[in-house]
Amino acid sequence: MRHRLVNDSLYLPPLMNSRLCSCLGLLAFGILTPGAARAEDGYRLWLRYDRIADEPQRAAYAAVLGQVVLATPTGTDSPTLAAARDELMTGLSGLLGIKPHITLDSSVVNAAFAEEGYNISLLARDNVNTVVITANRDIGVLYGAFALLRYVQTGRPINDFAVTEAPKIKRRLLNHWDNLTRTVERGYAGFSLWDWFALPDYRDPRYTDYARACASIGINGSVLTSVNANALVLTEPFLVKVAALADVFRPYGIRVYLTARFSAPVEIGGLSTADPLDPVVQAWWKAKVDEIYRYVPDFGGFLVKANSEGQPGPQDYHRTHADGANMLADALAPHGGIVMWRAFVYDQHVPDDRAKQAFNEFKPLDGMFRPNVFVQPKNGPLDFQPREPFHPLFGAMPRTPLALEVQITQEYLGSAVHLAFLAPMWKECLDSDTFAAGAGSTVARVIDGSVDRHADSAIAGVANTGTDRNWCGHPLAAANWYAFGRLAWDHSLSSGQIADEWTRMTFSNDPQVVQPITKMLLASREAVVNYMTPLGLHHIMATDHHYGPGPWVDNLRPDWNPVYYHRADAIGLGFDRSPAGSNAAGQYAPLVAKVYGDLALCPESLLLWFHHVPWDHQLKSGRTLWDELCLHYQAGVNEVRMWVEAWAALEGRIDQERFAHVQTLLRRQEREARWWRDACLLYFQTYSRRPLPAGVEPPEHTLDYYKGIHLRYVPGTPSEQ
Ligand code: GCW
To answer: pTM above 0.90?
Structure first.
């Protein structure tokens, strides 16, 4: 190929260059397009390719994007390159009204390129502006194509096109908690996308759109089935269906993984035991894995929930988690597959603080796992609460690669009803310093492998997708799918940048739209924390469906009771996890343990997580704990009220369909924020015996009224599925 790759500088013929420059200023000021007011159902997610209405801006892009070269070392075509061509053709013709000339070429590829990385450069080739997307592998080209489209969709300046990017984490997975019945555990957007009964014959075009959406943000793996696993997915009739999905996803760089039910050898194999040290069991799994690879040659591996919440596991046979994981790992290793063994384990019969149990169980096993095993903790030690400290296992298992699991679906943050943009929550975890190998050993660097020099790395997000036309239920909830992918690719991105990109692509570049929507996205998680679980409170939601407040619940198994977690009494509120209490704080590196374990040093956002604090204890504001608690609940309500107002101003600036849907949801969120506030404050007041401070609205109903609310058939609730 006879071209010169331009890295940082943009070379364009002078005339074109000046024309471009004059247009760049306009790029930042998108103007409301007539098209923007068209009804939209949200199906296209952030991959909307409507014509850029601003003519000079459109022309500026069109002038440089008419010719695209896709360059790989061989230059040979593939389904992945075809997908890149299709996407560029659809995207650029939609956005710019041009039919780009797209060619394949071989190129000298930068050896420093990571496997999935890409470079996008502009150059003048035979005096024609050409954009070149270069990569070591065709999947890098596809990622580059999506990046190029993103730049155009978000109105980014043209010289940004000289970019080199590579993902920081190797395995970027969605974990679907989808059942073979098509119900989705903790799913709030309809049924499972996988139509098992129609498969393998009918391949819903939606599978391709799912793959496109995932690839556009760099997701490269999909665990199709729930961690509360059904062994039947490992049988031949289902493997044929799995293979069909894998075939659809493959061109988009997405590998399929499955959940492995530990008792499968008994349930579907006819064996009398699933003991991982039994050679017959080992042989069964080996044969089963060989069979899976015959259907899916690039199968990714198994995700396993074992000895947790009633799931079978190696401890049923008095074996360790390492024994169980290693048996599966040995079966997968010859094929290059991996095991992601979840660390979400706790047992009501273990007397210790539930928040300590995963660490107690897994830390001693460090160094005992096969190289192709990941241990997968959730972001926090408990269970996807609106706020938790980072999981103490991060940094504590240097000899084991750890995969971070976050929850995209909003089990504890208002399902698909409440707006809660989760990038700030995940960033909080990723940016937490474990101090495992000195300052700067952030969770992000533990999981990307750089702290402990692991070659493989993984991150997983529990998906919020379903058959709802708009994929995620709430029209703004797709922002969380998007944010997960973007952070999995590059954990150094800011929440602000991600919110900005998503809003521009999903709605409009109009600053009058971008500004208010990004503002509410960025404030939303903290607002939810405030009206649900401020100051480190956790696990005080209603039973089973987890929707709405239930701080009074005390009749379940002990470690499921909200009263176990908040410990309200006449003296104060909060779980003492300091050295004087359960000393969960002591599971962190000494510097972190000192901060969390000391009431005077502990961040107020986690105060009641780590300490039992007297009601009249003075906080930084000078107010008592009680007053501050009340004001946090009120602040959450106030924030949601502001969104209701801000949203009203968007009428006519965005399409009516999504406008009206979000408006309805925000109004409900405001009502339910008050429900949370009133129910929690009335309940805690029975212990604090203090009045509500000025500025806090009086509750609308009595405590008994709130205690009497029993919701039925909340989507995603396993017991009602
Ligand atoms: O929080 C709990 C959920 C369960 C889930 C479990 C887990 C899949 O309520 O529905 O089961 O976490 O993560 O395994």
So the answer is: yes
